[in-house]
Design a protein that fits this description.
Length: 325
Protein backbone atom coordinates (compact mmCIF):
# COMPACT_ATOMS: atom_id res chain seq x y z
CA UNK A 1 0.00 0.00 0.00
CA UNK A 2 1.16 3.55 -0.75
CA UNK A 3 0.50 6.79 1.12
CA UNK A 4 1.01 10.45 0.26
CA UNK A 5 4.09 11.74 2.06
CA UNK A 6 6.01 15.01 2.12
CA UNK A 7 9.49 14.09 0.90
CA UNK A 8 12.53 16.35 1.25
CA UNK A 9 13.97 16.50 -2.25
CA UNK A 10 16.53 19.27 -1.70
CA UNK A 11 18.17 21.48 0.90
CA UNK A 12 20.26 24.61 1.00
CA UNK A 13 21.83 27.13 3.33
CA UNK A 14 23.23 30.61 3.59
CA UNK A 15 25.57 32.16 6.15
CA UNK A 16 26.68 35.80 6.27
CA UNK A 17 30.34 36.36 5.48
CA UNK A 18 31.10 38.19 8.76
CA UNK A 19 32.59 35.83 11.37
CA UNK A 20 32.48 36.94 15.01
CA UNK A 21 34.91 34.95 17.15
CA UNK A 22 34.88 34.46 20.90
CA UNK A 23 38.11 36.39 21.22
CA UNK A 24 36.57 39.39 19.46
CA UNK A 25 33.57 39.23 21.80
CA UNK A 26 35.93 39.06 24.77
CA UNK A 27 37.33 42.44 23.74
CA UNK A 28 33.85 43.97 24.07
CA UNK A 29 32.24 42.23 27.07
CA UNK A 30 33.52 40.49 30.20
CA UNK A 31 33.98 36.99 28.82
CA UNK A 32 36.63 34.73 27.31
CA UNK A 33 36.94 32.05 24.67
CA UNK A 34 37.46 29.44 27.41
CA UNK A 35 34.33 30.55 29.31
CA UNK A 36 32.12 30.46 26.20
CA UNK A 37 33.43 27.14 24.88
CA UNK A 38 33.18 25.42 28.26
CA UNK A 39 29.56 26.44 28.78
CA UNK A 40 28.21 26.33 25.23
CA UNK A 41 30.61 24.66 22.79
CA UNK A 42 30.50 27.77 20.59
CA UNK A 43 33.74 29.05 19.01
CA UNK A 44 32.31 31.52 16.49
CA UNK A 45 29.11 32.71 14.86
CA UNK A 46 28.06 34.64 11.73
CA UNK A 47 26.64 38.18 11.81
CA UNK A 48 24.50 39.70 9.06
CA UNK A 49 25.99 42.71 7.29
CA UNK A 50 24.36 46.15 7.59
CA UNK A 51 21.35 46.11 5.27
CA UNK A 52 21.37 42.31 5.02
CA UNK A 53 17.84 41.26 5.99
CA UNK A 54 16.22 38.02 7.07
CA UNK A 55 14.43 37.79 3.72
CA UNK A 56 17.73 38.23 1.85
CA UNK A 57 19.29 35.27 3.65
CA UNK A 58 16.10 33.20 3.31
CA UNK A 59 16.07 33.83 -0.44
CA UNK A 60 19.69 32.72 -0.81
CA UNK A 61 19.02 29.52 1.15
CA UNK A 62 15.87 28.90 -0.90
CA UNK A 63 17.77 29.28 -4.17
CA UNK A 64 20.40 26.82 -2.94
CA UNK A 65 17.69 24.32 -1.97
CA UNK A 66 15.96 24.67 -5.37
CA UNK A 67 19.29 24.09 -7.13
CA UNK A 68 20.01 21.03 -5.00
CA UNK A 69 16.53 19.64 -5.73
CA UNK A 70 16.94 20.55 -9.44
CA UNK A 71 13.47 22.08 -9.54
CA UNK A 72 12.32 25.44 -10.87
CA UNK A 73 11.07 28.13 -8.51
CA UNK A 74 7.84 28.28 -10.52
CA UNK A 75 7.00 24.75 -9.34
CA UNK A 76 6.77 25.99 -5.73
CA UNK A 77 3.21 26.69 -4.61
CA UNK A 78 3.82 27.14 -0.86
CA UNK A 79 6.47 29.00 1.17
CA UNK A 80 6.58 28.68 4.95
CA UNK A 81 9.22 30.90 6.55
CA UNK A 82 9.99 30.24 10.20
CA UNK A 83 11.47 33.34 11.83
CA UNK A 84 11.33 35.46 14.97
CA UNK A 85 13.21 38.30 13.28
CA UNK A 86 11.17 39.32 10.21
CA UNK A 87 12.09 42.27 8.03
CA UNK A 88 8.92 44.12 9.04
CA UNK A 89 6.03 43.70 11.45
CA UNK A 90 4.11 43.06 8.24
CA UNK A 91 3.98 41.95 5.51
CA UNK A 92 5.42 38.51 6.12
CA UNK A 93 9.04 38.13 5.06
CA UNK A 94 7.93 35.03 3.15
CA UNK A 95 6.19 37.18 0.55
CA UNK A 96 9.45 39.06 -0.01
CA UNK A 97 11.14 35.72 -0.66
CA UNK A 98 8.28 34.76 -2.98
CA UNK A 99 8.73 38.00 -4.95
CA UNK A 100 12.52 37.64 -5.13
CA UNK A 101 12.08 34.14 -6.56
CA UNK A 102 9.66 35.50 -9.17
CA UNK A 103 6.73 33.42 -7.91
CA UNK A 104 3.30 35.02 -8.36
CA UNK A 105 1.06 32.08 -7.48
CA UNK A 106 0.41 29.92 -4.44
CA UNK A 107 0.78 31.08 -0.84
CA UNK A 108 3.56 32.38 1.38
CA UNK A 109 3.52 33.18 5.09
CA UNK A 110 5.71 33.48 8.17
CA UNK A 111 5.51 31.18 11.19
CA UNK A 112 6.71 32.15 14.66
CA UNK A 113 7.67 29.47 17.18
CA UNK A 114 11.15 30.82 17.96
CA UNK A 115 13.82 28.07 17.93
CA UNK A 116 11.19 25.39 17.27
CA UNK A 117 10.02 27.28 14.20
CA UNK A 118 11.52 24.98 11.57
CA UNK A 119 9.95 21.88 13.12
CA UNK A 120 6.61 23.71 13.36
CA UNK A 121 7.07 24.82 9.74
CA UNK A 122 7.69 21.25 8.59
CA UNK A 123 4.52 20.11 10.38
CA UNK A 124 2.48 22.90 8.80
CA UNK A 125 3.73 22.32 5.25
CA UNK A 126 3.42 18.55 5.69
CA UNK A 127 -0.23 18.85 6.66
CA UNK A 128 -1.01 21.13 3.72
CA UNK A 129 0.77 18.87 1.24
CA UNK A 130 -0.89 15.71 2.57
CA UNK A 131 -4.28 17.40 2.25
CA UNK A 132 -3.64 17.89 -1.45
CA UNK A 133 -3.94 21.68 -1.21
CA UNK A 134 -0.30 22.15 -2.28
CA UNK A 135 2.20 19.97 -4.10
CA UNK A 136 5.67 21.44 -3.56
CA UNK A 137 6.83 23.72 -0.75
CA UNK A 138 9.83 25.63 0.49
CA UNK A 139 10.21 25.42 4.26
CA UNK A 140 12.77 27.96 5.43
CA UNK A 141 14.29 28.92 8.76
CA UNK A 142 16.00 32.33 8.73
CA UNK A 143 17.11 34.64 11.54
CA UNK A 144 18.99 37.86 12.22
CA UNK A 145 19.14 37.48 16.00
CA UNK A 146 22.09 39.88 16.09
CA UNK A 147 19.51 42.67 15.70
CA UNK A 148 17.66 41.79 18.94
CA UNK A 149 20.66 41.11 21.19
CA UNK A 150 21.82 43.28 24.07
CA UNK A 151 25.50 43.36 23.24
CA UNK A 152 26.36 44.34 26.83
CA UNK A 153 24.77 41.16 28.23
CA UNK A 154 27.43 38.47 28.15
CA UNK A 155 24.95 35.75 29.12
CA UNK A 156 23.05 36.11 25.83
CA UNK A 157 25.15 37.95 23.23
CA UNK A 158 27.71 35.12 23.08
CA UNK A 159 25.10 32.53 22.17
CA UNK A 160 23.41 33.63 18.96
CA UNK A 161 24.24 34.04 15.30
CA UNK A 162 22.56 34.76 11.96
CA UNK A 163 21.83 32.53 8.98
CA UNK A 164 19.24 30.67 6.95
CA UNK A 165 18.48 27.13 5.84
CA UNK A 166 15.79 25.72 3.57
CA UNK A 167 14.34 22.47 2.30
CA UNK A 168 12.12 21.65 -0.67
CA UNK A 169 9.18 19.41 0.29
CA UNK A 170 7.30 17.51 -2.40
CA UNK A 171 4.16 15.41 -2.17
CA UNK A 172 4.90 11.86 -3.34
CA UNK A 173 3.26 8.47 -3.11
CA UNK A 174 5.54 6.33 -0.96
CA UNK A 175 5.35 2.75 0.37
CA UNK A 176 3.64 2.60 3.76
CA UNK A 177 6.52 0.69 5.31
CA UNK A 178 10.04 1.24 6.61
CA UNK A 179 11.36 1.90 3.11
CA UNK A 180 8.94 4.78 2.51
CA UNK A 181 10.61 8.20 2.38
CA UNK A 182 9.37 11.50 3.75
CA UNK A 183 8.11 13.01 6.99
CA UNK A 184 6.94 10.11 9.14
CA UNK A 185 5.67 12.09 12.11
CA UNK A 186 5.98 15.51 13.73
CA UNK A 187 5.09 16.01 17.40
CA UNK A 188 4.60 19.58 18.66
CA UNK A 189 4.17 20.98 22.16
CA UNK A 190 4.08 24.34 23.95
CA UNK A 191 3.60 25.66 27.49
CA UNK A 192 3.09 29.40 27.90
CA UNK A 193 3.72 29.31 31.65
CA UNK A 194 7.45 29.53 30.87
CA UNK A 195 7.30 32.72 28.79
CA UNK A 196 9.46 34.69 31.23
CA UNK A 197 12.33 32.21 30.94
CA UNK A 198 13.12 33.19 27.34
CA UNK A 199 11.53 36.17 25.62
CA UNK A 200 12.06 39.53 23.93
CA UNK A 201 11.20 42.56 26.07
CA UNK A 202 9.48 44.52 23.30
CA UNK A 203 6.89 44.35 20.56
CA UNK A 204 4.32 46.36 18.58
CA UNK A 205 1.44 46.01 21.05
CA UNK A 206 3.48 46.25 24.26
CA UNK A 207 6.32 48.75 23.94
CA UNK A 208 6.18 49.78 20.30
CA UNK A 209 9.85 48.80 20.04
CA UNK A 210 11.76 45.76 18.83
CA UNK A 211 13.23 45.01 22.27
CA UNK A 212 16.07 42.73 23.32
CA UNK A 213 16.31 39.03 23.99
CA UNK A 214 16.19 38.07 27.69
CA UNK A 215 16.89 34.63 29.05
CA UNK A 216 17.17 32.75 32.32
CA UNK A 217 19.82 30.38 31.05
CA UNK A 218 19.87 27.92 33.94
CA UNK A 219 16.09 27.56 33.88
CA UNK A 220 16.04 26.95 30.13
CA UNK A 221 18.77 24.32 30.48
CA UNK A 222 16.92 22.66 33.38
CA UNK A 223 13.75 22.17 31.34
CA UNK A 224 15.29 21.54 27.92
CA UNK A 225 16.55 17.96 28.16
CA UNK A 226 13.38 16.62 29.81
CA UNK A 227 11.03 18.37 27.38
CA UNK A 228 13.03 17.33 24.32
CA UNK A 229 13.27 13.72 25.47
CA UNK A 230 9.53 13.58 26.14
CA UNK A 231 8.50 14.68 22.66
CA UNK A 232 11.11 12.47 20.95
CA UNK A 233 9.84 9.43 22.85
CA UNK A 234 6.35 10.33 21.66
CA UNK A 235 7.62 10.34 18.06
CA UNK A 236 9.17 6.91 18.59
CA UNK A 237 5.97 5.54 20.09
CA UNK A 238 3.90 6.91 17.20
CA UNK A 239 6.09 5.33 14.51
CA UNK A 240 7.41 2.20 16.23
CA UNK A 241 11.02 3.27 15.77
CA UNK A 242 13.60 3.46 18.56
CA UNK A 243 16.80 5.40 19.14
CA UNK A 244 18.75 2.47 17.66
CA UNK A 245 16.99 2.99 14.32
CA UNK A 246 18.12 6.61 14.02
CA UNK A 247 20.96 7.22 11.56
CA UNK A 248 21.39 10.94 12.31
CA UNK A 249 20.29 13.05 15.26
CA UNK A 250 19.91 16.66 14.07
CA UNK A 251 18.97 18.82 17.06
CA UNK A 252 18.42 22.54 17.38
CA UNK A 253 21.91 23.95 17.86
CA UNK A 254 21.43 25.89 21.10
CA UNK A 255 24.14 24.59 23.39
CA UNK A 256 26.49 21.61 23.18
CA UNK A 257 25.70 20.57 26.73
CA UNK A 258 21.96 20.41 25.98
CA UNK A 259 22.61 18.47 22.77
CA UNK A 260 24.92 15.97 24.51
CA UNK A 261 22.54 15.63 27.46
CA UNK A 262 19.56 14.97 25.20
CA UNK A 263 21.44 12.39 23.13
CA UNK A 264 22.62 10.61 26.27
CA UNK A 265 19.13 10.48 27.77
CA UNK A 266 17.67 9.17 24.50
CA UNK A 267 20.41 6.57 24.09
CA UNK A 268 21.79 8.03 20.86
CA UNK A 269 25.52 7.53 20.34
CA UNK A 270 27.69 10.67 19.94
CA UNK A 271 28.85 9.73 16.43
CA UNK A 272 25.26 10.06 15.18
CA UNK A 273 24.94 13.71 16.26
CA UNK A 274 25.13 16.44 13.61
CA UNK A 275 26.76 19.38 15.39
CA UNK A 276 27.21 22.88 13.96
CA UNK A 277 26.80 24.99 17.11
CA UNK A 278 30.58 25.36 17.37
CA UNK A 279 30.70 27.29 14.06
CA UNK A 280 27.22 28.83 13.82
CA UNK A 281 26.15 29.51 17.39
CA UNK A 282 22.42 29.41 18.05
CA UNK A 283 20.67 30.50 14.85
CA UNK A 284 17.19 29.78 16.26
CA UNK A 285 14.77 28.57 13.54
CA UNK A 286 17.64 28.38 11.04
CA UNK A 287 19.77 25.95 13.02
CA UNK A 288 18.19 22.63 12.00
CA UNK A 289 18.03 23.29 8.23
CA UNK A 290 21.58 24.69 8.37
CA UNK A 291 22.73 21.47 10.07
CA UNK A 292 20.86 19.33 7.55
CA UNK A 293 22.49 21.16 4.64
CA UNK A 294 25.90 20.79 6.30
CA UNK A 295 25.53 17.03 6.70
CA UNK A 296 24.17 16.60 3.16
CA UNK A 297 27.02 18.66 1.70
CA UNK A 298 29.68 16.43 3.28
CA UNK A 299 27.69 13.32 2.32
CA UNK A 300 27.01 12.06 5.81
CA UNK A 301 23.27 11.96 5.11
CA UNK A 302 22.37 9.40 2.43
CA UNK A 303 19.12 8.40 0.77
CA UNK A 304 17.11 6.14 3.06
CA UNK A 305 18.68 7.42 6.30
CA UNK A 306 16.36 8.00 9.25
CA UNK A 307 16.74 11.52 10.67
CA UNK A 308 15.58 12.65 14.10
CA UNK A 309 15.01 16.42 14.33
CA UNK A 310 14.18 18.21 17.58
CA UNK A 311 14.06 21.75 18.93
CA UNK A 312 12.99 23.83 21.90
CA UNK A 313 12.44 27.57 21.99
CA UNK A 314 10.96 30.49 23.86
CA UNK A 315 7.38 30.18 24.95
CA UNK A 316 8.26 27.38 25.69
CA UNK A 317 7.68 25.60 22.38
CA UNK A 318 9.25 22.29 21.47
CA UNK A 319 8.89 19.56 18.91
CA UNK A 320 10.41 16.55 17.17
CA UNK A 321 10.19 15.00 13.72
CA UNK A 322 11.22 11.69 12.21
CA UNK A 323 12.14 11.93 8.53
CA UNK A 324 13.23 9.23 6.09
CA UNK A 325 15.67 10.94 3.72
Amino acid sequence: MSVRRSVIVGCGSYLPSRVLTNDELASKVDTSDEWIVQRTGIHERRIAAPGELTSHMATQAARAALAHATVDAQSIDLIVLATSTPDNTFPASAVSVQAELGIVHGAAFDLQAVCSGFVYGLATADGLIKSGAFSRALVIGAETFSRILDWTDRSTCVLFGDGAGAVVLEGQMEPDNREGRGILTVRLRSDGRYKSKLYVDGGPSSTGTVGHLRMEGREVFRHAVAMISDVVEEAFTTTGYTAKDVDWFIPHQANKRIIDGSAHKLGISPEKIVMTVDRHGNTSAASIPLAIADAVADRRIKRGDLLLLEAMGGGFTWGAALVRW
